[in-house]
Amino acid sequence: GDSVTQMEGPVTLSEEAFLTINCTYTATGYPSLFWYVQYPGEGLQLLLKATKADDKGSNKGFEATYRKETTSFHLEKGSVQVSDSAVYFCALGLYNNNDMRFGAGTRLTVKP
Amino acid sequence: EPEVTQTPSHQVTQMGQEVILRCVPISNHLYFYWYRQILGQKVEFLVSFYNNEISEKSEIFDDQFSVERPDGSNFTLKIRSTKLEDSAMYFCASSETSGRPSYEQYFGPGTRLTVT
To answer: Does the beta-carbon distance from A105 to B100 stay under 8 Å?
Structure first.
């Protein structure tokens, strides 16, 4: 079935380090892809999205490119900050479905 | 900026009791959703709702669950007889449209349900 697999954490980085969180998907149709972020004690916030192959979503220094050939949507940031510490969820949404499919989440901790 | 709100933020209940979780979706949105997240696990879809009826539901959404839009603004999730395994964070979401590639769901802050 349609699903998302993302790198499980936890991931611990020092401030200003480079971040990659891997995400791959399986879908029968043409999904839209999303990254959501969950800060401690808060709900899910949309971080970025891409709706078709080769689209790049970006926000707050984070980027992810929709790669149809590798069915991937890896999240990257060139220089993380302590304030980026959160849980990151990759998700897909399908054209003909109402529900979103989420990955298991990756906990990122950035140390000063 | 418009946002989805949920009340209460934390609900503690005893096993077997009924609970109602409340959500106010974004005002011009037409599609409403409930998800849950058991502690440390992935976010799971429960149900979607459109035009005053359920449009999709997952296997988790059994007869113990029901949803309702009692008025023009609220969207509720009722659990009839709570079980210990219902303890989770419940997220409400809404979207302006559905069924097109760029639809986006806006999530509320969640209600943490603890069943004792």
So the answer is: no
